[in-house]
Amino acid sequence: MLLAAWCLGQAARSQEFDARSAVYIECTVSGKVTGQGSGAVIDAEGRLLTAKHVVERAHANNGDCRGAIGTRINPNDLRKLTFRVVPENLDIVMMQFDEHEILTFVPIPFAGLIDIPKDTEVVGYGFHPDGSPTADRSVGKVISETVDASGRMKSGQNTQKGMSGGPVLIDGRLVGIIAAESFDRQGQQISTLFVPAKQFPEDILRWLTNQDTTRRDRTATILAEQLAMNDVCTQILREQISLRKNEFPTAAQIATPLIEASSSSLIEVADYWVTVTTGPARWIDCRTGKMLKALYFPTGMMLQPERDVTIDGETRTIFLTEQGLRVFLDHEAIEPITPDIGYVFATATGVFKVCKQTDTGCSVFDEYRITEHDQHWPFLSGYQSYLRSEEPADLDRASEALREMFEYQSDPPGPFDPLAIHLNLTDLGSLPACKEREARLYTVLMRFDAAKADKGSAYLEPVRFSLCTLHKKTAYNRLERIKVVTLAAADARFRNLWAVNTIHQPTENVQRVTRALFNVTQPIVSIMKCDDDRRAILTLGRAARGSVTALDDVVAADADDALAEVSTRRHSVFRQFQITQARSPVDVFKTAPLFNDIELSAVCAGNNEITNAGEIIVDLAPLAQKLELKLFDLFNDLKTSDEYRNLGMVDPDILNKRLREGIMYRICGFHEYIVWRSILFDEIKDSELVRQAKEAMGVDLALMADHITHLIMANVFSTDTRILNSQHRTERCD
């Protein structure tokens, strides 16, 4: 019997038929073509029906079948097909495009299990090898209602080779699949055979007749099973889904009743806490449930406890940091922020003198370089000491005065401006921010102890300090180098904050939920190597902005080869994160994608070696487009920084290895943290994208920049440092 289909007929096209509903199919075995035919798309997930004889040799011999949607001209349009249902005794199979998550389909509506009387007009579509680039159309009438022994009906139309497997329609709805031709004794074609829907096997009929219900039930079953798991990552995933109930109604209905009320014993003591030493903040490795070092934390980082969880039999607390990241921290690293207590921290590499009460020759306005401070104790520095004050209201007033001084020094007022009248930088008595204050001095190894006469501090009496410095008899504020932490400051910060959960390696649990939610087979891309084609990848981490695209410019207008080369000239590691609203009144994140990501992209050199001529690419919901930071520029900024001699550049081989693993730099101490934080913060703050996002969200620019800075540091930086305490008195990486 000749491979066949509906007739070639006229070139006219039915207005109700979309070209993307037909598929050209080509099968090979060991590189040789064994079958060519047509297919009919039946759902938006890329499933299609075709004639079994088109694909059976490839199926029997482990061959390869590929399909092109709506056209047969360009071999590059052929995409791999996988067999789904292959009946034994019928000339029909169901297949599916492997890359259905990145392709667009227009399924043909199913007419149902209707009778097809004689003389009913039917329309067929298929690809004739010598015909037009798109599927050819033919109109004919049914010759007989009788179904032969092979389950086929007859139509009185001519057909030609290559159109087998194409759809047969009545009023634009699928009623059958083209099967074969029938000839008389003289070799003249007298009819065309097609398999009517009533003869389809049960597995295919079940899919066609209950497609929506089947998919919905399958999705609900997967979600009910996976969302019931009680690990930390799944708990947070449930909350993310519940917040997006309008987008995921079925999943939200399952997840919401399973959400546990969050609580922490720390909240009974204080709503906010602050770090008083340095070390690694941690997050969950969702695959193993173990703790993973995620982010270096400095002194003075404000925290809000969210919930206590049990991991390996130990109770730990999830905190929201002032930069909007969820982390675990050791309780020994923190102190409470209460209405009657405030703190003062150094936030830069400067060292600020504080004075003992008995030292009358000491000046609280002195500063020292980090390399010469040891002989000037006592002092305030970012990784060695902090101040604890019993006058938080006074610190709040001083903070406001510091901001006033900062504005004055950044943009001096005219001579008649009221500010110029009362703000005399040469008269410390007129400057509320600069007066001498008292507070207790603590090293990072000390903790407050109410039972002791010295309260556990460095001295029996409080020390004297100032929030200003003197240079050439003129006072300068330390606003950007000293940080005041009070209940009012924490309240103001967290009032406008959101929360982010980083996901270094999504679990199979998260992957299954994601596949069910989005009906995709590869929802999250974690890594793309130098020889991977970026154009073929779609990741939910792209925040629904489309496929992962080549980062380089392609100059040539007609440059398919050049584009293919460019799109494989990158090595990228993707770090996913989930973002949600916390206590913030800003509602931008209520409709944010369930997954965003940060991509560390390096350029592939010879032999697939990689270099730092790449980018950090942040895909964050409030940004109008992806934010790109050039790695080369960032490393160059490090090299030209004042602290470079103390830090040193990483070895090129180590840098290459880390970039391949998705790590840009390893933080081992406060100085490295401060330098990199400053480099990233300045780059991000100056970005027009971030400024626009800041305006859209109505938040402070520094908050927006600080959030993105630490999001980057939590994803593409690493830390192996240890917490500074009585057991570990110096900062270094393990």
Automatic annotation (TrEMBL):
> What Pfam families does the record tag this protein with?
Trypsin_2
Domain of life where this protein originates? Bacteria
Query: What is the protein's given name?
Result: Trypsin-like serine protease
